[in-house]
Amino acid sequence: MSNTIYIEYNFEISPLQPTSDILIAELGEAGFESFVEHETGIQAYIQKSEWREDILNEVMILGNSNVTIHYDRKELEQENWNATWERNFNPIRVGEQCEVRAPFHEKSALTYDIVIEPKMSFGTGHHETTHMMLQFILAHDFQGKTVLDMGSGTGVLAILAEMRGATSVDAIDVDNWCYLNAKENVERNHCSHVKVYEGDATLLKEQRYDVIIANINRNILLSDIPVYVKCLAENGQLFLSGFYKEDIPLITEKCVKSGLKLEKILEKNNWVAVKYVF
Questions:
Q1: pLDDT at residue 88 in the model
Q2: Rounded to an integer, what is the distance from CA 112 to the centroid of its chain?
Q3: Separation CA 274–CA 265 (nearest Å)
Q4: Closest alpha carbon to 236 in 210, 264, 258, 216
Q5: Lowest mean pLDDT among 32-36, 96-100, 104-108, 149-153
Q6: Distances (CA, A) of 112 to 69, 107, 160, 165
Q7: pLDDT at 205
Q8: Considering only CA atoms, which of 220, 219, 226 is closest in space to residue 254?
Q9: Which of 36, 66, 198, 199 is least surrounded by Cβ atoms within 10 Å, i.e. has the fewest?
Q10: Neighbouring-strand partners of residue 166
């Protein structure tokens, strides 16, 4: 990145959620490639060569009267980009076993040292949903398991699943940038059992998985849960996140109709991750 000039936008947001998630998604569509979440909003980065004066005109959330978003922008000097990224991207520790870090951080002494170059992909461990899904993976036996990571983003969950002993992991994301980024991160972490695919639930045919992980928004989950269940092996486990506590009844109703039952809930800042079993 050091040879590229970037434009930095700093957005102050109220209410913070789900506004931040919507804003990040729309900025990604507009061409922004990196994001850093902070206590009051987000910082977003785009290459100067890709930037134009009217680039925010297509970001619809900025015109929503129910939210307040203030922003400013500045150009980053070439030599300052790496320093800016390093200053804002901090390693994430999950329990006493796992750390998710960027390539420029020192190697962790923890059991699971995951190196992620996030670019504009979702899933660094900073967001509550990713953090909780990492917790679920750490708390369960993945030895010898076949795993599906749906909506894989950076690939961080698939990578940890292999580190925890999974012998076959399929990572699927509909976004081309996420697909490419996950492939890079899988290689960066020397994973030999993770295969990355670009697409959605229509890719799932006759596959069978012991564990399915899906960290996606509520509406996609509600649509795709029956597909996931058809792919679950006997005694399989389904881990879901990407939605709020108040969405649990809707998600659970869909899972129960497919023969699953709710077993465990994790909660962090009103975001939840849930486990379902047969």
A1: 66
A2: 18
A3: 5
A4: 210
A5: 32-36
A6: 38, 10, 7, 12
A7: 92
A8: 226
A9: 66
A10: none
Place of tokens 């390693």: 91
Q: Please tell me the distance from the alpha carbon of residue 132 to that of residue 135, in angstroms, as a whole number.
A: 5
Give the span between the Cα atoms of 210 and 143, in whole angstroms.
11
The pTM score is: 0.75
Structure tokens at 39: 């206590």
The domains located in the chain, with CATH, are 6-86 (3.30.70), 121-277 (3.40.50.150)
Tokens of 12: 């102050």
Is there a contact between 76 and 2 (Cβ–Cβ < 8 Å)? Answer: no
Phi, psi of 126 (to 5 degrees): -70, -40
Give the Cβ contact number of residue 144 at 10 Å: 10
What's the mean per-residue pLDDT of the chain?
Answer: 90
Q: What are the residues facing 71 on neighbouring strands?
A: 11
pLDDT of residue 2: 37
DSSP bridge partners of 170: 148, 195
pLDDT of residue 46: 87
